[in-house]
């Protein structure tokens, strides 16, 4: 398991993506799965950077664990910002046109649809979001 802790900022989306991609490439992760994971990283880290710490700043820790049977990866995103359970957000009605749909919710919806497992918990003052992707 590898870990990275950085400032929760939009500028660090790329830093976290590169950190995770290095491990995925070393594990032989196919491009399609890596691209799906990259989208999930972007959505998760962007939401933490924009909303977790309100008007202050804070950290985000990311761990990645590669597993071999079945092959895949588990990534955990931890922040000590405002408690927020993204799994409790109602999925958007994607049958509606964008003009008729409420703003927000598409990012976590995409994460839930492209990852094999998404788990949220609030523990010891931290939001902990774990995503798992087999490849």
Q: Can you describe this structure in just a few lines?
A:
This protein has about 140 residues and is α+β, with helices and mostly antiparallel strands. About 35% of the residues lie in helices and about 30% in strands.
Structural class: alpha+beta
As for the CATH topology, it is: Heat Shock Protein 90
Assembly classification = single chain
Radius of gyration: 15 Å
Strand order of the largest sheet: 1-2-3-5-4
Helix content: 25-40%
Count structural domains. Answer: 1
3D shape? globular
CATH architecture title: 2-Layer Sandwich
Order of helices and strands: EHHEEHEE
Low-confidence stretches: none
State the distance separating the first and last CA atoms: 17 Å
Pick out its properties.
3 helices, alpha+beta, Heat Shock Protein 90, single chain, five-stranded antiparallel beta sheet, 5 strands, 135 residues
Topology record:
Layout: E1 2-7, H1 13-26, H2 31-52, E2 59-68, E3 71-79, H3 106-114, E4 117-123, E5 126-134
Antiparallel strand pairs: 1-2, 2-3, 3-5, 4-5
Helix pairs in contact: 1-2, 2-3
């Amino acid at each position: 398991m590898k870990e990275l802790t950085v400032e929760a900022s939009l500028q660090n989306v790329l830093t976290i993506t590169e950190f995770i991609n290095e491990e995925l490439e070393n594990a032989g992760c196919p491009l399609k799965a890596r691209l799906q994971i990259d989208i999930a990283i972007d959505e998760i880290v962007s939401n933490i950077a924009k909303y977790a710490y309100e008007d202050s700043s804070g950290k985000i820790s990311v761990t990645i664990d590669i597993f071999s049977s079945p092959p895949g990866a588990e990534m955990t995103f931890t922040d000590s910002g405002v408690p927020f359970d993204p799994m409790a957000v109602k999925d958007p009605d994607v049958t509606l046109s964008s003009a008729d749909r409420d703003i927000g919710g598409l990012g976590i919806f995409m994460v839930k649809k492209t990852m094999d497992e998404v788990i949220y918990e609030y523990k010891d003052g931290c939001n902990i979001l774990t995503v798992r992707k087999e490849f």
